[in-house]
Design brief:
This protein is mainly α. The protein has a two-stranded antiparallel ribbon. Strand 1 and strand 2 form a beta hairpin. Helix 1 packs antiparallel against helix 2, helix 1 packs antiparallel against helix 4 and helix 3 runs antiparallel to helix 4. The chain is elongated, with a radius of gyration of 18 Å.
């Protein structure tokens, strides 16, 4: 189960990186996505030796998911009044189609929710495994 959750983390991290390149996102997104990808690669390659390290990294990854969820739901809430007929927002260089931005914000908020879920399951799984055998090696 740990490997499946690690692969899920890998794909979620890659999706956040793709979403970051499509939007003008914050640096929290890109560093959070890099953390998710590195954490997933460590889990897949069995480089993390103790369950305690896995629990700590899963909690940090859940905090990344909470940050994504809060920032993108805040963005969705602020754009709520402008959504009628997908108006164009005039900018200096180009018109940004708001419907595309809202769709991306919604996908990234769902991605944050999935990151929270996957890493909570990963932390719970590691916690239960560490209670069964305290000297367990990942």
């Amino acid at each position: 189960m740990e490997t499946v959750l690690a692969i899920s983390n890998l794909f979620l991290g890659l999706f956040v990186i793709l979403g970051f390149t499509a939007s003008s996102g914050a640096s929290v997104e890109i560093w959070g996505a890099i953390f998710l990808v590195v954490f997933a690669l460590f889990l897949i390659s069995k480089k993390l030796k103790t369950k305690r390290i896995i629990i700590g990294m899963a909690v940090k990854a859940s905090l990344i998911g909470i940050t994504l969820l809060i920032s993108y739901s805040k963005s969705l809430r602020s754009n709520q009044g402008l959504l009628h007929n997908c108006k164009l927002i005039p900018t200096i260089v180009y018109g940004l189609k708001l419907c595309n931005r809202v769709a991306l914000d919604f996908c990234m908020a769902i991605c944050g929710l999935l990151i929270i879920t996957v890493n909570s399951l990963l932390a719970a799984n590691s916690f239960i495994a560490s209670k069964r055998s305290p000297n367990a090696i990942a």
